[in-house]
Design goal:
- The chain is built from 12 helices and 5 strands.
- The protein has 316 residues and is of the alpha/beta class.
- The protein has a 5-stranded parallel sheet with strand order 1-2-3-5-4, sandwiched between helices.
- Strand 2, helix 5 and strand 3 form a beta-alpha-beta unit.
- The protein has one domain: Thiamin diphosphate (ThDP)-binding fold, Pyr/PP domains (Rossmann fold, 3-Layer(aba) Sandwich).
- The structure holds thiamine diphosphate and magnesium ion.
- The site of magnesium ion has 6 residues, from loops.
Length: 316
């Protein structure tokens, strides 16, 4: 499976899983989908048939509210049956909304933001002490960078020269209820991580080639922070940069139909949609009630668009 195929599967499964369960965080999964796909196809070392294999790279999904993205990667890579994804967020399922270490392939439960980097630093120190050659990766949100514990851990990582550690910040400029810059502005994240003594790489977080080369090796002698510029909701036009889709799930009718239809328009070769193999023949059109419903749920003013948000420039 290529990273492009896995990224598409993450988005398609997530529409279905949030739709069935009424669960949240679809926008944050769409944002991190390409990062997760590249990690689970081209970067991480693992053995699905032996989840606790000692030589595996360690992975911490610190923005644990996007557990669906991790479960999808693990299922698609063979850690457990893909069919089980349908139980996501349901009573008695092990696929809880936030990441659970009871799922094969998951090392750390997460969801309370701000703890993942500290845990990853501990794993990286242990790896060095035991003279192991595996690496440790942690993915965190930009809103999560408001947590002071992130910076305490960052300081420790630089102090111990943990060049076996990579942090990827999903920099989508939004958190749960508003833009990060209007909630608690962390300033320029790249400069901040650099000032803490890290090797910093800034890139477009939807560019698989850029992610792949940034994540593959590190000759700097320092821990690496990848500041990945992303779009929350990326892949479904009406979810992009709209804070509504942090919590809302695709409802039956045009929301679900439109999301699936848009995904089918960019389906990579060789991918089978497990739910609607031929797309949706007659997608429901949005009605006046749908529009009113969505508008009344908005918490962010339509006019605010951050001027510094220029993905194109980062790509160049
Ligand atoms: C310690 C803590 N406080 C608050 C929350 C509630 N919460 C869940 S997601 C979220 C927003 C996180 O924003 P960000 O880190 O930017 O992630 P994104 O959803 O944008 O990927 C918040 C505040 C939490 N999970 N943990
Ligand atoms: Mg964010």
């Amino acid at each position: 499976m290529t990273s492009e195929q896995l990224a598409w599967m993450i988005r398609r499964h997530d529409v279905e899983m949030t739709h069935i369960s009424g669960g949240s965080h679809i926008g944050a999964v769409m944002s991190v989908a390409d990062i997760m796909a590249v990690l689970y196809t081209d970067v991480l070392r693992f053995r699905p048939e032996q989840p606790k294999w000692d030589g595996r790279d360690r992975f911490v999904l610190s923005k644990g509210h996007t557990g669906a993205s991790l479960y999808i990667c693990l299922a698609e890579r063979g850690f457990f049956p893909v069919e089980e994804l349908k139980t996501y967020y349901q009573n008695d399922s092990r696929l809880s909304g936030h990441v659970s270490h009871k799922v094969p392939g998951v090392d750390v439960s997460t969801g309370s933001l701000g703890h993942g980097v500290g845990v990853a630093v501990g794993m990286a120190i242990a790896g060095k002490q035991d003279r192991k050659d595996h690496r440790v990766f942690a993915v965190l949100g930009d809103g999560e960078c408001n947590e002071g514990s992130v910076w305490e851990a960052a300081q420790a990582a630089a102090n111990f020269a943990l060049d076996n550690l990579v942090v990827i910040v999903d920099h989508n400029h939004m958190q749960s209820l508003d833009y990060c810059e209007r909630t608690l502005n962390s300033g320029a994240l790249a400069e901040k991580w650099r000032a803490f003594g890290w090797n910093v790489i800034e890139l477009n977080g939807h560019d698989h080639d850029a992610l792949c080369s940034a994540l593959k090796k590190n000759d700097s002698g320092k821990p690496t922070a990848v500041i990945a510029h992303t779009v929350k909701g990326h892949g479904v036009s009406f979810m992009e940069m709209d804070i509504l889709w942090h919590y809302r799930f695709p409802h039956t009718g045009w929301e679900y139909d439109q999301a699936v239809t848009e995904l089918h328009r960019c389906k990579p070769e060789g991918v089978e949609d497990p739910y609607t193999p031929n797309g949706i023949a007659h997608p429901a059109m949005p009605g006046a009630k749908d529009e009113a419903d969505l508008r009344s749920n908005h918490t962010v003013g339509e006019t605010f668009r951050p001027t510094w948000f220029k993905l194109q420039e980062v790509a160049e």
